[in-house]
Amino acid sequence: MKAAVVYESIYGNTHSIAQAIAEGLGSAGAAHVVSVEEAARMDLSGIDLLVVGGPTHAHGMTRTQTRHAAVQDAMSRDKGLTIDPSAGGLGLRDWLDALGPSSGRAAAFDTRVDMPELLTGHAAKGIGKKLKKHGFELVVDPESFLVTGDSGLLPGEQERARRWGEMLAMTLSDEQQPST
Ligand SMILES: Cc1cc2nc3c(=O)[nH]c(=O)nc-3n(C[C@H](O)[C@H](O)[C@H](O)COP(=O)(O)O)c2cc1C
Question: What is the pLDDT of residues 25-64, one digit of tens each?
């Protein structure tokens, strides 16, 4: 199985989660972690599973304005936040909007603050909707991985992401078993 985990990340948390998901998927074959900027230059046609994730900003996927606000926030306050090397490029929303008609299997995830979803929103929901609109089949429900109010990953979330990747790999291998 060939999988790609496409991520957008400003402070690095979604990037870490993407790497952990790829580790979990690794048991089923190669899983490449690529930034959304790299994904825009890739041919995705040979990919068996496309996993797409980004941070929740203003209750949904990032926008140009929220990405700028995130960078400004990190620079203006001493919160110990670092900017991910991939930040500053293309956002997931624009990449997804530009994807042509597609097919194949996919899954969506996000990072969001550890509070009830009603208050935080959930970028993965929008990511999943756009993937479906382009023709992908979502193999699992969109998933969130949680950060603190200061945008640091909650303890245990990387391990949970690794297990989520393993679960995705199992879902696919179950589907590929011939029925008896
Ligand atoms: C401009 C801005 C808006 C945000 N809006 C939300 C929000 O609506 N809901 C939420 O749960 N988290 C929100 N957050 C927190 C982000 O979800 C958090 O910074 C992100 O998950 C960290 O991922 P990253 O390290 O990959 O950038 C916001 C953060 C920024 C900078």
Answer: 997 778 999 999 999 999 988 899 999 999 999 999 999 9
- Tell how far the Cα of 58 is from the centroid of ligand 1, in angstroms: 7
DSSP track, 129-156: HHHHHTTPEESS--EEEEE-TTS-BPTT
| H or E stretch covering 3 | strand 3-7
Q: What mean pLDDT value characterizes the chain?
A: 93
Domains of the chain in start order, with CATH, are: 3-176 (3.40.50.360)
- Please name the residue whose Cα sits nearest to atom 2 of ligand 1: 57
* 79, amino acid identity: K
Report the pocket of ligand 1 as residue ranges, CB < 6 Å: 9-14, 55-59, 66, 69-70, 73, 111-113, 120-121, 147, 151
